[in-house]
Fold this sequence. Notes:
Strand content: 5-15%
Helix content: 10-25%
Order of helices and strands: HEEHEH
Mean pLDDT: 90
Strand order of the largest sheet: 1-2-3
Amino acid sequence: MPKMKTNKAAARRFKVTGTGKILRKQSGKRHINEWMAPKVKRKLRGWGGVAPELVHNILELFPYRKYLR
Length: 69
């Protein structure tokens, strides 16, 4: 039986934490932010959570994850 493959598009977009939570990058900072207030840009830094109804679909894209749900 061949190895299962991780979905590479999902691997670049999501991060699975040690406890099994899924994190995503905040959206809205790619372009057209020249006139955006600095406070708004600071809030868009880092990682955010994923909606609970999407968690199952995203976890299926990572066959070798450590924690199963």
